[in-house]
Specification:
Family: Belongs to the short-chain dehydrogenases/reductases (SDR) family.
Distance between the termini: 33 Å
Number of helices: 8
Number of domains: 1
CATH class: Alpha Beta
Largest sheet: 7 strands, parallel
Organism: Rhodococcus rhodochrous
Bound molecules: nicotinamide-adenine-dinucleotide
Strand content: 5-15%
Strand order of the largest sheet: 3-2-1-4-5-6-7
Pfam families: adh_short
InterPro entries: KR_dom, NAD(P)-bd_dom_sf, Sc_DH/Rdtase_CS, SDR_fam
GO molecular function: oxidoreductase activity
CATH superfamily: NAD(P)-binding Rossmann-like Domain
Shape: globular
Structural class: alpha/beta
Length: 281
C-alpha cells in the first residue's frame, strides 16, 4: 500500500504501547485514524493525542473478543470516514502460570483477545478493504510465535502461533487470488509498553497467577521491557515501512525470531528437547 495520505486506518489496542505508537505514526503519515480499545479513559486520552498530531481521529470503545463489537467498529468507521484502507489487529493480552494451574477462563481470555480478536478483525474488515484499489492488514503476533516453551507463558505462545499460522495462510490466499489487500505480520521481542501489566484487563473472576516462578518471570520481563525494550515508536516506523513495501514479516528483533525457528529445526532434526526459554531472550 503505497499511499497513506488521506486514507483511513483502524488500530485495535490503540490506547497504549505499540497500538498508540502506530496510530500516532499513521496520523503523521496523513491518515484518518479510528482508535479501538477496551480502556475508555486511556482511549479518550490517546484519541486526543492523535488529534494533536494533526489527524482526524475517533475513538470507539471495542472489545475485540466480541464479533458484534468488531462489526459495529467497521460500521462506524464507514459511517464516519466512508471507507477503510488499513486495519492493524494489534490488541493483545497475556496471563499464564504453570500448566495445570492455568484456569480455563485464563486460556479463553488469552485466546479470545489475541487469536479471535485478530480473526474477527480479518473476517469483518476484509470485504471493505477488498473494495479499495490498495489496502493492508497488520496482525500483531510476537517472537513468542516462533519460540514455544517460554516458562509460564504457554497460552500466550499458543495464541501467537495461531496468529502466525492464520496470517501466513491468509497472506498466501490473498496474494494467489490477486487481492488488492496485502498483509503483514508484526512479531516483536521486548518493547517498552504496558504489556507486563496486561492482567489489568483480566475479566472478572480471574486472578493474576501468583506462583513464585511466574512472579519472578514477570518481574524480569518488566525490567527487560523497560531497560532493553525497543521504544514503540521504532516498531511503528518499521511497520509503516512494511505496509508501504508489502513485506509480510516485520521483525523488530530478527535475531530472536530466527533463533526460535532454528531451535525448532534443530529439535526436529536431532530429536533432542530444547531447554525452557526465559521471556525476552
Ligand atoms: N510489549 C512487548 O514486549 C510485545 C512483544 C511482542 C508482542 N507484543 C504484542 O503487541 C501488541 C500490543 O501490546 P503492547 O505491548 O502495546 O501492550 P499494552 O498493554 O501497552 O497495549 C495493549 C492494548 O490492548 C488493549 N486491549 C486489551 N484487551 C483488549 C480487548 N479485548 N479489546 C481491545 N483492546 C484490548 C489494552 O487496553 C491496551 O491498550 C499485543 O498484541 C502484544 O501481544 C508486545
Amino acid at each position: 500500500m503505497k499511499v497513506l495520505n488521506h486514507r483511513v486506518a483502524v488500530v485495535t489496542g490503540a490506547a497504549s504501547g505499540i497500538g498508540l505508537a502506530l496510530a500516532r505514526r499513521l496520523a503523521v503519515e496523513g491518515m484518518h485514524i479510528v482508535l479501538a480499545d477496551v480502556e475508555p479513559d486511556a482511549l479518550e486520552e490517546a484519541t486526543e493525542q492523535v488529534r494533536a498530531d494533526g489527524a482526524e481521529a475517533i475513538g470507539i470503545r471495542t472489545d475485540v473478543r466480541d464479533l458484534g463489537a468488531v462489526q459495529e467498529l467497521a460500521a462506524r468507521t464507514i459511517e464516519e470516514f466512508g471507507a477503510v484502507h488499513l486495519v492493524c489487529n494489534n490488541a493483545g493480552v497475556e496471563t499464564g502460570g504453570s500448566f495445570l494451574e492455568i484456569p480455563d477462563g485464563a486460556w479463553r481470555w488469552v485466546m479470545d483477545v489475541n487469536f479471535y480478536g485478530v480473526l474477527n478483525g480479518c473476517r469483518v474488515f476484509l470485504p471493505f478493504l477488498a473494495e479499495q484499489p490498495e489496502a493492508h492488514i497488520v496482525n500483531t503476533a510476537s517472537v513468542a510465535a516462533f519460540t514455544s516453551g517460554t516458562a509460564t507463558m504457554t497460552p500466550y505462545c499458543v495464541s501467537k502461533s495461531a496468529i502466525l499460522s492464520l496470517s501466513e495462510s491468509l497472506a498466501i490466499e490473498l496474494h494467489s487470488s490477486n487481492s488488492p489487500v496485502g498483509l503483514s505480520l508484526l512479531a516483536p521481542g521486548p518493547v517498552n509498553t504496558r504489556m507486563p501489566d496486561a492482567e489489568r484487563n483480566l475479566p472478572e473472576g480471574l486472578e493474576p497467577a501468583r506462583d513464585p516462578q511466574r512472579v519472578a518471570m514477570m518481574a524480569e520481563l518488566r525490567a527487560k521491557a523497560q531497560h532493553a525494550g525497543l521504544d514503540p515508536s521504532e516498531v511503528a516506523g518499521m511497520t509503516v515501512n512494511a505496509i508501504r513495501d508489502n513485506q509480510f514479516y516485520v521483525l523488530p528483533h530478527p535475531e530472536m525470531a530466527l533463533a526460535g525457528v532454528r531451535r525448532r529445526l534443530q529439535w526436529m532434526e536431532t530429536g533432542v528437547l530444547p531447554a525452557p526459554r526465559k521471556a525476552g531472550t
